[in-house]
Amino acid sequence: MASSGLKKVFFQLDYMLSAQFTGLILAQKAGIYNKHGIDVSLVEAWTNVQRWAEAGAGREPYIVEKMYKEEQGKSVVLGCVEQNVLFEAQADGVDVMAVDAMMKGSVLAVAGSPEFQNLNGLSDLSGGTIGMHADSIQLVKALLKHQNLQDKVQVVEVTAAEKYHLLGSGKIQACQIYDVMEPLELIQVQEYNGRLPAVLNLASLAYKNQGYSQVIYSPKECVSEHGDSIEAFLAATREGWSMALDNMPESSSAVMEARKKTGTYSKSGYQDDVQLQQKCLELMAPLLGTSATPAREMIDPQEWEEASVQLAELGLLSSAVPNESSLWIR
Asked: What is the reported pLDDT for 227?
């Protein structure tokens, strides 16, 4: 318990403060978390030097599990990652489970280099190279193998700082993106001449359904011991998202204000303004739950299990992760 009498909550982001976390930023700024009896600290991925130097992208579930142990159960610890990343960690023995998702619909995608007008499937990239972040490189390799494209399309690991240059220069033919933000950045890259890139969303290939993005998870022991506080966090976060959608210009300004306080800026340099954050928020709006959507209804158990089975069939997981150990159903 924090000195203020509020329950302490640490939330590990998988990125820096940006539009995809507007609801959390506003819930913190407006005192909504405090109203629900919790004191929330948002931990940016890129400001955690040890996490990036030693753990690498996609290791957030491992970090969260370790953090909870170090806190000795005194604080609530949660985090968010993409659905495939969480399943991979669970299959690897990390004792965490999904408790909610911020977006009903995966926004994990690949964008084509300027030569592509359309991307209808991974086969369109035959003879080329896809640049992926460390957290999803195995997913794309599994998808290519499943389609017998593993010898026709090369996959390499790229960083957020270098991928736009590699894509614009034609050194890679596609790269991993978030399709609600990064096309807005790529349109600013000189080689695209002001047009949006061709985009291929990976959800239907990976999950056989729309999937989920920014899946919120916590160690199982934390869920068992602090379920009420987690429910409070989820409810407060949904209030924050409702506030964000009610006034997008003001909410986008709050994102940039929060970012300035941490001194963190995008690796690409193309998303550090209020206007882009607002456009991103507008694209996210149809996927977001609000306070009118109870947390327990955000993740559909059948869809969640279907995705796990699909990833196992693709060979990404050694076996499907059963819902009872993967998803908080209450």
From this structure: 96
